[in-house]
Amino acid sequence: xxxxxxxxxxxxxxVVAGKADxxxxxxxxxxxxxxxxxxxxxxxxxxLSADNFSDxxxxxxxxxxxxxxMWPWLIHHSLVRLDLRVCRALVNNxxxxxxxxxCKALKQLNISGCSVSSSKVSDxxxxxxxxxxxxxxxxxxINDSLTLHIMKxxxxxxxxxxxxxxxxxxxxxxxxxxxxxxxxxxxxxASNTAISDATIASILDRCSSLRSLIVSFCSExxxxxxxxxxxxxxxxxxxxxxxxxxxxxxxxxxCHLCPRLNQLNVSGPIDPNMLTDEVVTSLQSVSCLSQxxxxxxxxxxxxxxxxxxxxxxxxxxxxxxxxxxxxVDCALIIRSCPVLQALVLDECRNVxxxxxxxRSALMPHKCLHHLSLKSAxxxxxxxxxxxxxxxxxxxxxxxxxxxxxxxxxDVCDDVVVEMVASGKSLxxxxxxxxxxxxxxxxxxxxxxxxxxxxxxxxxxxxCVELSRLDMNEFRExxxxxxxxxxxxxx
Length: 490
Fold this sequence. Notes:
Blueprint: H1 8-30, H2 34-37, H3 50-62, H4 71-74, E1 81-83, H5 93-102, E2 108-110, H6 118-127, E3 133-135, E4 159-161, H7 170-177, E5 187-189, H8 197-206, E6 212-214, E7 238-240, H9 248-257, E8 263-265, H10 278-283, E9 291-293, H11 302-311, E10 319-321, H12 330-336, E11 342-344, E12 370-372, H13 386-395, E13 402-404, H14 413-421, E14 431-433, H15 442-451, E15 457-459, H16 468-480, E16 486-488
Parallel strand pairs: 1-2, 2-3, 3-4, 4-5, 5-6, 6-7, 7-8, 8-9, 9-10, 10-11, 11-12, 12-13, 13-14, 14-15, 15-16
């Protein structure tokens, strides 16, 4: 099978990136006044489009070719989107000043993890009236002073991410979202912050167009919807309240107030006993769920969920995470969810795929592209060995692109060779993770190298049967075939 070559535009961009340092040195040599150069807006990139500038900055950052002296060239007045997270080490307050001064048409800005001050971000929002989306997540210097000038901002934000801003207090977050610039928000990510139920209730009252609310890993969250009038209906489509203090009543309230709810994640509740099978009853009132996360909800039992699968309540699911559940019936899920694209069953025990070992019981599921079974165990209560059940499951997902089988006791050379040599499954596999699988040896590597033509990443770390010689031979084999497979070992 032959890979599709990179688009011509991408190849050209790589050439430009490769020449960037040469052009920089040439310009510096010709410029006598270094100070004047720092304010130059021209340069060899001046004819690039706004999207080209954005892509070039990201490419230079990812490849480590970006230098601080390039900012006067790259921070261009035509920029509409700007993602600086890949080069966060080179981003400081001076760069933010340059963005505020030049990029008046900027609509999307991502400075996640950058060491910039709260006052500079506040000034930035005031200086850029067109900005719609900003990501300041994980910025170590962001604190409550962000709100000092925010009331003066004339922009109308639609998306904001403040997740992992540990210095922001609940009061600071509340003041931030009370600013006029935040009244038009449709997407909020405040994960791992000090945000409270009261602050979220205030946001729900002010932001009538809010469609996405992500507040995972917020220990103060229990039921922010409790104060919302029962007669009101919210526009929320995506809700992530994983690793919070949610309860059955929270889910009941959410399902009542959010009839358009499409994506729900309540994985890893702080108190698993607060989410029980009653959640299933509440979920039955939601007709269009496409993503559902119930990982580590140990008091929600699969037989209760099985009723929803059989009744067709979950037939529109695209993503499902049931990690750490017991007695999960893979065959039922695959039959009931025809458009499912990602299935995560990490750490599940007594997984059931087939009771008789017959592959005919499972029709091929052509939509599933992502399957994760890390540390999962197949059922020992049926007459079919775990290795046979795993083989049957993999046979039923012929178009899977990403497969994670880390630390599975049922993974061995026989299973790997059978699944890659069948000619009917895993033909398009791009990512394969077998980390910690003690039964994988060079026999598996030979099969993987011979059959998986689209493989881009292979993780065989902590596979004790593999030696340095085995890995060197595999890498040399890939090199001779002209395949750039990234391999993780040890």
